[in-house]
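dumping the sequnces here before i forget
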Amino acid sequence: MAVETSTAGLDAAAIRADFPVLAEQVHERPLVYLDNAATSQKPRAVIEALQTYYETYNANIHRGLHALSERATAEYEAARAGVARFINARHAHEVIFTRGTTEAINLVARGWGDENVGEGDEILLTEMEHHSNLVPWQMLAKRRGAALRYIPMDVDGRIDLEGYARQFGPRTRLVTITQMSNVLGTITPAAEVVRVAHEHGVPVLLDAAQSIPHLPVDVQALDADFVAFSGHKMLGPTGIGVLYGRESLLDAMEPLLGGGSMIRVVELHRSSWTGLPDKLEGGTPNIAGAIGLGAAVEYLAAVGMPGVARHEHNLTEYALAQLSDLEGVRVFGPMDAEDRGGVISFYVGDIHPHDVGTLLDADGIAVRAGHHCAQPLMRKLGVPATVRASMYLYNTADEVDCLVGGIARAKAFFA
Amino acid sequence: MTLEDLYREVIMDHYRRPRNRGALDDANVVMEGVNPLCGDEIKLWLRIDDAGVIRGAAFDGHGCSISQSSASIMTAAVTGKPLADAHAVIAGFRGMMLNGEPPDEALLGDGVALEGVRRFPVRIKCAVLSWNTLQLGLDEHATAGGQRVELHHSES
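..and the predicted 3d for all of it:
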């Protein structure tokens, strides 16, 4: 069984060979990397793209009249176009490079929210949002005298669509929701969420930090208004992320950062802004990071996102079955692999997740233990923290077996 | 690095059979410490008499085996001690954990068992949470000049 599930659709061995770090040993054991929801590993193609930039054409973009700057500009913009293709955006300038999901969401909260949300207005979101899709809205609500309202959902993160549809009123200004929970793995019905919101003329922001790396995502098919995601969770470097926005919304947005590259004319007492995307990318951007992300989406597109999703689905199904066979292991989120991704949170007996994390690490198994930047959800689940194993295209059923063995050893250790 | 360095028998014993767990009714210092990064929480009760002797110390909270056993060890180590001695125990423990000073069993008692946690850098904060909370509690007690002190959610 292990062999079948590990190879369905993807050539796991060939893919693993593209990721140098996967050959590392940890505590004299082969690394079993199951912390992909925190950050993914990087294929050689991404590492080499960074190296080639720094070694052969490092220059600032959009300003130098020299060969290196022209090449850097072309590669930077090619990366933008590549990301736009990857998510099927209408225009490349609908892709704004940010430091990551957090900055992308804050950019919307400031640049759009401050202009469009006022006293008594309401923002709809869920209790399972990552702090990065919660705190910026709390800050906006405080600045503007607005209120947050929570979409009804069960402990598995399944939202009640009928209850959701009833929450719209004349003061509803925005729906902001994760497309895949970073704790429960639950995939939300994003297209339906958007459809209902648009019936009420309300735009939707999707936090796609956990979904775009793992599922085919088509922003036009979803009809989403804003989509935020991070490069480092999808094989790219840290410090680069994306805000996708519908052109008309981005056009009307105020910049978060004033400074170089984002202006048209600067006078002593006022300035005017340039157009998209530069208006929203003040200062020298993370050029290398963007180029690295461009290489990452090229890699993922070559493997094929439907295949990535199928592989992770098979692994998740296998892992859920193995974990639910372990006595004393409580798995959070849907037990059906159909409506969830490869993020699996669990609790082992009454052993604290940090202890489980340390014991697994001794076996070379990297997982996350903690509250996963989702404290309101932890309270709803009634636990201070969970252990979280999260998978990607290079993981195998053998690694799931290692995890299960490690958990059994942890149980024995604390028995 | 072995797991046995981290999870010594003494530590596991305090984890399984915590000493001084639960509220202290006549406490005159009540402190809460949290580690916002991992979510560990500790509540600490102290009864300090007019002569400046810690007559009782108790804790409650949730967290990993290291944070909970460390709190248990700490309450046992400072109960019955004059404040000056308690300060010396705290300084000795923090010196061992944070500055690599050699463990002093006469001073720290079971606390020396936590020395091995130093080899697990991410777990050091688990071991020192309760001790930082105690330090804050003693500081607040000194500032309050004998008045009852109750503080919630200090970051340690």
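Chain A touches chain B at residues 27, 351-355, 358-359, 362, 370-371, 375, 378, 384-385, 413-414 (CB under 8 Å).
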